[in-house]
Amino acid sequence: MKTSKLSLALITALALSGSVYADETSEIADLKKEMKELREITQTLVEETSDLKTGSNYTTVDTEKSHSGLGSAASKVYYSKSPLSIGGYGEAMYTNNHDGSTLSGTKFVPYIGYKFSDNIILNTEIEFEGGGVDRGGNAGDEVVVEFMYLDYLINKNANIRAGNFIIPMGLINQRHEPTLYNTVERPDTEKYLIPSTWTETGAMAYGRIVDNLTYNFATISALKTDVNGKEWLREGRGGPVERSNPNLGFAARLDYTGINGLLVGTSAYYGPSMDGVKSNTSIYDIHLDYKNNGARVYGVYSQATRSSASNIAANAVESAQGGYMNLSYDLLSLTSSIYSLPLFMQYESLNPEEKRADGTSGDSTHTTTMGINFFPHEQVVLKLNYAMKSQGTIDDKITSVSMGFIF
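The structure assignment produced for this chain is given below.
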C-alpha cells in the first residue's frame, strides 16, 4: 500500500513538473515574441527620432523594386516614407574612336516626386545634360523637364497615368538609369528604333491582368516622323515641349514574369506619320531580361514600318529593323565579395533605313561590344567597354569609359 501511495505521489509530482515545464516554455516563447516586438518599436522610435533631429524622413533606393516597369530611382516615390521624394541618376563618360575623343562631363537627372495621398502621386524627371546651360546660353546641351505626370492608383489591376510620361516600349526606354544596363552607351536599337528616352503627353492605363502578367495601354501624342536618315523616328518625338496640332497615337505592352528572374514581353506603337499626309507609322518589339545567380541575358528585337511612304517623299523610309543581345556574368558572384564585377559581351545589328520608298536602302550596322562593369555599391557603377562597329565599308573601334550612379 505504501508503495502504491509512493508511486502515485511520484506520478503526480512528474505530472505537475511537466505542466510547470510546459507553462515555462510557453512563457519563454511569449517573452521572446514580446522582446521582438519591443525591438521593432525601439528601431522605429530611433528612426523617427533621427528624422526629427535631421528634419528629414528619407527613403533609400531599393534596387530590387520597380513600379510599372520604371527604373529603381524613378520608382522611389512609390515606396517613399515621406510625401516628398528626391532621387535621380547621373553619369559622365569618355569615348575614343576614329573621329577623335570626347569627354561628356556631366549628365545629372533628378527625380522629384510627391504623394498627395496614398493613391495620388506626382512623379517628375528634370534633365541637365552636357552640364546644363550657362547664363549666356552658350554652354552645355539642355535643361528640360523630361517627364511630369500624375498617377491615380486604384488597385493592382487598374491604375491611371496622365501627363507627359515615358512610353512603355523596349527595355531601356523606361529603365534608362546607368546601373541597369551594361554598356557605356545605350544600344542603337533603343536609340533609333525605340527612340529612347521617348516621352509623350497623354493618358495610360496599367496594371495586372493575372498574376505575373501585366499590361500598359496608352493614348498619346503621335510621333511626327522625319523623311529619312537614321534619326527619322527619333526626330519625331514630341517630348515635353509644346506641340501644335498634335496627332493621336497609341502604345501597348504586355510583360510576363512568372518564372523567377525572367521578364519577357512585347510592346507596340501605332500612329499617323506626320501632318497632312495619309501615312501611318508602326513600331513593335519583343524583349527579354533573364537573371540567374551571377548570369544575365537581356535583349530586344524591333521593327518599324511606315505605310504609303511615297506620299511623304520618293526616298522616304518605309521600314527599319534591328536588335541586340547582351550576355554577362558577375565574376565576383563566385566569391563572398559584396561587390559586383559583370563581364559582358553584346552583339547588335541595326538598319534604320532598311527600305526606302524608291527601292533603295541604307547600310546595316553591326556592332560587337565587350566590356566590364564594377559595382563598389549597388547604386554606383564604373564601366569600360570596347566596341567594334562596321557599316558598309567603314570600320570603327570605340573605347568608352564611364561612371554612373542612382540615388
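Interim note for the steering committee: The two ends are 83 Å apart (CA to CA). The chain has two domains: 1-56, 70-406.
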